[in-house]
Amino acid sequence: MNRIGCKRTILAALLLFLAIGSPSHAQRAEPLPEELEGVGIEEHRNAEIPLDLAFTDETGREVTLARYFEPGKPVLLTLVYYRCPMLCTLVLNGMVEALRETGLTPGEDLELVTVSFDPVETPTLAKLKKQNYVKEYGDPSVAPAWHFLVGGEESVRRLTETIGFGYRWSDESKQFVHQAALFVLTPDGRLSRYLYGVMFEPRTLRLSLLEASEGEIGSPLDKIVLYCFHYDSDQGKYSIAATNVMRVGGVVTVLILASALIPIWIRSAKNKQPQPPGRES
Length: 281
Fold this sequence. Notes:
Elements: H1 3-20, E1 40-41, E2 54-57, E3 62-64, E4 75-80, H2 87-100, E5 111-116, H3 123-137, E6 146-150, H4 153-163, E7 165-166, E8 168-170, E9 175-177, E10 181-185, E11 191-196, H5 202-212, H6 220-227, E12 229-232, E13 237-240, H7 242-272
Parallel strand pairs: 4-5, 5-6
Antiparallel strand pairs: 1-7, 2-3, 2-6, 4-10, 8-9, 10-11, 12-13
């Protein structure tokens, strides 16, 4: 293997590390390799996305991010670049695979927004990428709810800085170095959850979207399930909240006992009522 090939192999390994590694806010005992300086994600939970940012969609139409936010419907955001040879494809593939298993319907329950952070990419590239992923999703009805955008340097910079998404261009490999994640946004454009990696647990994705919607999507059972789970940032998934489970269990126990005892009380009350005097013959 020649020198350039060796360096590209090392960079690929570093990219894979970014894809499966822990969030960048975790403490590290050793300094990052030079190739990864400035790369990573710093969580800005509850930060407001600038909804006035101007982008261009896959049809060439000028839009602002506000177009994709409406009451009661969360937004699942991905930051990629369309010519990415590896990591972006893995992120989008993982999102599609998980989303299909959540039971949630794009357009009805959520909106999908994919933004290129490479300011030189064009609406034509965005259109081709959308065609590929609508086909990959396997349902043409997802097309109106999945938006592929490109933008100028200022819009890209403001969006990535708000999210805390750090990346850099590698002259050696001629590609961007960046971390892999999905960004869950509330209907009013606030950052609700960061989901890291290239493979996403469907239950974690579903609960993240339910949480971001603030109870506006999902069934009554979903709301109970969400109450019984909390997000564990160390594990990157939802785990059982024991106290809440006990509370729900206590309520359920009371309801079960009440449903069993109330008919008994009613019958007992009826039996204690004085009987009407019999008619004399």
